[in-house]
Automatic annotation (TrEMBL):
Transmembrane segments: none annotated. GO terms for biological process: glycoside metabolic process. The keyword rRNA-binding does not apply. This is PIG-L family deacetylase. Keywords: Zinc.
């Protein structure tokens, strides 16, 4: 089965800046070149402890990185729903009702506003609490209902990150593989380099070697050179 990406409008949920690139950077490169629209809804960003010399990266630094990556991928728009240290890495303290409503209709990039044809979000089995909460809130916002009254994207899927496997109940292998060209992967890896506060040398879940290895593995499973994997929750043909 193939998708005419030139006709699609993607809405991608990223708990933090870089999750969208880790999970579907290759897909974003592929579909944008085909003519698709791409909107990225970040959920939160704040000062972040890291392994750099100074020991942390500021929210301002991370916003500057987002702007570079947005230009790199040519996103149509992006937004941060809950910025600030009071939310960053604390999304599990926000009521599901509030998060789901933001995603469904209150954010500038809400489902009601964008009317996406494809929605991508993190997988709920991630060990990261912000990823879990985001996945569940998106799931609630996209609950089945009368399509005459609420917009329903045709495709709803979860992207994967290498770090998601750090769970005893980790998700099984993806059931949707999207073939990537070498240039798509190169675009993804270049974007990760722009997230300078978040990239690391190998061995690390966010290293270039890890990202390339996962693309090679998913490609092998589909009988092609490179691919990204997704877990589909809805596919309306």
């Amino acid at each position: 089965m193939t998708i005419d990406w030139s006709r699609e409008r993607l809405l991608i949920y990223a708990p933090h800046p870089d999750d969208e690139t880790l999970g579907c950077g290759g897909l974003m490169a592929k579909v944008k070149n085909a003519g698709a629209e791409i909107y990225v809804q970040f959920v939160t960003v704040g000062d972040t402890a890291d392994l750099s010399t100074k020991g942390y990266s500021t929210a301002d630094e991370r916003f500057a990185e987002i702007k570079k990556v947005a230009d790199h991928f040519r996103w149509d728009d992006w937004n941060v729903a809950f910025p600030g240290d009071e939310y960053h890495l604390k999304l599990d303290a926000i009521p599901r009702f509030e998060l789901s409503n933001a995603f469904e209709r209150h954010s500038p990039l809400s489902i009601a506003e964008i009317e996406p044809t494809v929605v991508l979000a993190p997988h709920r089995t991630s060990y990261n609490q912000d990823h879990q909460v985001t996945a569940e809130a998106v799931h609630t916002a996209l609950r089945p209902s009368d399509t005459r009254k609420r917009h329903h994207p045709r495709v709803v899927a979860a992207y994967e990150e290498a770090a998601d496997q750090w769970r005893y109940d980790a998700a099984p292998s993806p059931n949707l593989l999207v073939e990537l060209a070498e240039t798509d992967l190169d675009t993804k890896l270049a974007a990760m380099c722009m997230y300078g506060t978040q990239t690391h040398e190998h061995p690390h879940t966010r290293s270039e070697a890890t990202l390339r290895s996962l693309a090679v593995l998913r490609g092998m499973q589909g009988g092609v050179a490179l691919a990204e994997g997704f877990h589909t929750m809805r596919w309306l043909a």
